[in-house]
User: Which sequence fits this backbone?
């Protein structure tokens, strides 16, 4: 019942007796939009009789409908990390909307994608809109940890942190990282002397500009400097009945390091039953075993050592301390008698 262009109405008149006075055919063209428009014409015959013809219900709509496309909001960077539904709405002031493109789901990753929608009114006028600028990135960033490696490190070493992240679409937004729960940054140097011995974990996260996230962790182990220790006992045997006033001498070698840098106040003799601190004196430096590697001789109170060993046992004695701030450790097995 609608026209989307001008409408020409033609009137034809006839009279079988006197005939039509004037033209028997007349036409009028309607060009204005409107609902239920009317056109009429009056004809007369030559006898003076007249009649009027009325044609109504003429609907003209030549204006295309208005159509708009919309989506849910992207993030602050203009990106989506999931499918995007484009919804179209349309309006038409005269004939009304007949059809409109249904919702379209954009699911493919890409930059500045476009979706088209079309609305057609009841007069057959159509209009198409293009919703562009749709950026979709569903892929998590890729994280690379170059340093540290998943291996053992000596307590005297330093590590230069080296990690990165990449993202092929939206790009990287941030790369937070934590070492044992403490914030660290790429390129930071970690002095392992400031860490405890044992396992340590670096956790790196990456967020792209579409808010996809990824995580990667790496565990490394910090170990003490390996020391060679010699508990100066006859046949590696500790006789608890020996003179308690005579201290127990221990010789310490740490290959590649100057044992003069050992902080004697940190040195302890350890067994499964306890720990004894080294005496601050006497302390001597020399090559006691003549292997061309310097030794440091420290002493321990015999009575204190006797208290943490038991006769009849084979005991592992561990000497531990700090050398230039780094922990060293060495062990020797002894036999205990009384």
Assistant:
């Amino acid at each position: 019942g609608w026209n989307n262009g001008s409408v020409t109405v033609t009137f034809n008149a006839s009279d079988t007796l006197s005939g039509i006075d004037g033209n028997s055919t007349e036409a009028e063209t309607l060009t204005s939009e409107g609902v239920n428009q009317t056109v009429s014409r009056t004809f007369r015959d030559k006898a003076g009789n007249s009649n009027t013809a009325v044609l109504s219900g003429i609907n003209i709509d030549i204006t295309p409908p208005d159509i708009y496309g919309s989506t849910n909001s992207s993030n602050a960077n203009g990106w989506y990390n999931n499918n995007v539904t484009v919804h179209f709405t349309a309006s038409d002031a005269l004939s009304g909307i007949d059809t409109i493109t249904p919702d379209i789901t954009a699911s493919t990753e890409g930059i500045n994608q476009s979706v088209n929608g079309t609305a057609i009114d009841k007069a057959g006028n159509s209009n198409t809109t293009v919703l562009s600028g749709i950026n979709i990135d569903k892929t998590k960033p890729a994280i690379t940890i170059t340093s540290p490696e998943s291996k053992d490190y000596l307590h005297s070493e330093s590590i230069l942190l080296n990690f990165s992240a990449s993202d092929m679409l939206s790009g990287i937004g941030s790369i937070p990282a934590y070492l044992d729960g403490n914030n660290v940054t790429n390129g930071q140097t970690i002095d392992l002397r400031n860490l405890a011995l044992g396992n340590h974990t670096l956790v790196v996260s990456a967020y792209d500009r579409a808010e996809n996230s990824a995580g990667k962790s790496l565990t490394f182990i910090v170990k003490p400097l390996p020391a060679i220790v010699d508990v100066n006992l006859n046949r590696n045997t500790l006789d608890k009945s020996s003179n308690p006033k005579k201290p127990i001498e221990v010789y310490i070698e740490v290959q590649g390091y100057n044992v003069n840098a050992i902080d004697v106040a940190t040195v302890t003799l350890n067994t499964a039953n306890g720990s004894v601190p080294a005496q601050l004196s006497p302390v001597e430096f020399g090559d006691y075993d003549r292997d061309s590697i310097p030794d440091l001789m420290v002493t321990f109170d015999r009575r204190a050592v006797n208290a943490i060993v038991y006769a009849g046992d084979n005991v592992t004695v561990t000497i531990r301390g700090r050398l230039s701030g780094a922990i060293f450790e060495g062990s020797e097995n002894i036999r205990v008698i009384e």
